[in-house]
Design a protein that fits this description.
This protein is mostly helical. The protein has two domains: 67 residues, Arc Repressor Mutant, subunit A; 140 residues, Four Helix Bundle (Hemerythrin (Met), subunit A). The protein has nine helices and three strands, in the order αβααββαααααα. A three-stranded antiparallel β-sheet has the order 1-3-2. Helix 1 packs across helix 3, helix 4 packs antiparallel against helix 7 and helix 4 runs antiparallel to helix 9. It is elongated and about 55 Å long. The two termini are 24 Å apart.
Length: 240
């Protein structure tokens, strides 16, 4: 729990200081979950969190309730709060929603004029992603993949869609254990991105949608296989 960073306590000059303190506490805990400093399944103890963040138990209690409502933590009667884990059904539903949103945003992109520098920016993100694809699966790699897809969705001009998609990525990433995940695809995910961008540049909507759908469907299939009982690789065979 010492990995949590103490938050800045509001001063008397702050407007509605109690609300500001609760928001700061909520954000600090959420950032620790997203940053994998608080890992899936970890029990969240009010007093420990309060001491680590330098606040009272009240903003911690309110923050945990909000995170519970948003699905970032779970609440078990007589046991307390825990960082949320993920099951196969939730993975499928998240990926189904992600695919629907990304394909819709891609279709919107084809109704607009895309500046060459936008494609160049996406290619730069994918270059960083390629380097990470040559290494073991890491949270950094997941975050750069998220960056690519959200930057692509942003080209649709629909910022609400992009924010919703960002929430889906956050849920998939924060609840995902990278340890033991067996991924031998090499740079294949990066090459998927290259194909999508090439189809956009060629104004080939059908090909772009097909590449994107296959890319997301493949990611869902690999993740669900990993979560299925008996299918997760042992530490002796895992690459990451």
């Amino acid at each position: 729990m010492s990995n949590l960073k103490p938050i800045k306590v509001p001063t008397s000059a702050d407007v509605e200081a109690p609300d500001v303190l609760v928001q700061s506490t909520y954000q600090a805990i959420k950032d620790s979950i997203l940053g994998n400093r608080l890992r899936p399944g970890h029990k969240l103890i009010h007093q420990t969190l309060a001491e680590s963040l330098g606040v009272s138990r009240t903003p911690v209690r309110e923050s945990l309730e909000r995170l519970y409502q948003e699905g970032y933590v779970t609440r078990i009667a007589n046991r307390g709060y825990f960082v949320a884990e993920i099951d196969v059904q939730e993975v499928r539903e998240l990926y189904q929603t992600r695919e629907a949103l990304e394909i819709f945003s891609l279709q919107l992109i084809f109704k607009t004029e895309i500046a060459p520098e936008s494609i160049t920016a996406l290619e730069a993100i994918n270059t960083r992603y390629k380097t990470l694809c040559m290494e073991n699966l890491s949270r950094e790699r997941l975050m750069v993949d998220r960056e690519f897809h959200l930057a692509l969705a942003a080209l649709s001009g629909n910022q609400y869609l992009r924010r919703t998609l960002g929430g889906i990525f956050d849920r998939l990433i924060l609840k995902r254990r990278v340890e033991g995940f067996h991924d031998l695809r090499g740079i294949e995910p990066c090459e998927d991105h290259v194909r999508i961008l090439a189809a956009i540049s060629a104004n080939d909507e059908q090909a772009a949608v097909g590449f994107l759908s296959n890319h997301i469907g493949g990611a869902c299939a690999r993740f669900t296989r990993y979560l299925e009982p008996g299918d997760a690789p042992t530490s002796s065979t895992a690459k990451s």
